[in-house]
# Entry
Amino acid sequence: MDHFADRLRAAPQSRLQRGAAAEALALARQLARWAQSIEEPAAEPREMPDAGMFAAADQITVAAHDLALVLDDEGQVEEAVRLVEEARKRAGV
# Structure
């Protein structure tokens, strides 16, 4: 995840506009919902706001770190790593 975020930070604006930032935001939102569902299973998940394409790397970092704090199963960790890898490939970074 940190590698993906670093690649986003280094990506040119044109790549971010072509979908890399949107892909990162979608993943950040997915990871944030997952963390919220573990921490507060009865609560309605809150959606991470779109803070702009230049904030997408920070958003994915925060969401992934929050999720890492609540995961307690190796299978869940592997699933999170798979999701990040898939998003990285789709984003082209």
Observations:
- The chain has a mean pLDDT of 92.
- The helical segments are 2-10, 13-39, 56-70, 74-91.
- The two ends are 12 Å apart (CA to CA).
- Residues 13-39 form the longest helix (27 residues).
